[in-house]
Amino acid sequence: MYTVEMATAFKSIIPPENFGVVIYDSEEFITVMINPKDLLDLSEKHKTEIVQYINNIKKTLEDFGATVFIVREALEE
Q: CATH number of the domain at 4-72, please?
C-alpha cells in the first residue's frame, strides 16, 4: 500500500524540530507511530505544530487512497 508517491509526499512534509514518526505498512492500512516520550515537556506552541504535522501526514496519505491510523504507546506512570 505505501507507494513511492506516498513516500515522496511524506518526506516533503517538514517535521517540527526534534520530532518524527515511524510509518508502518500493513498492506491494508498505514500506521503512523508516535513515540509518547517525544511529547513530554513541550510548549503548547510546539505541541500545536506537532498536531498540525501529524494531521498533514494523515491527510496527505489519505489523498493517495490509504487508510491511516495514528497510534502511540501509553506512558507508564
A: 3.30.70
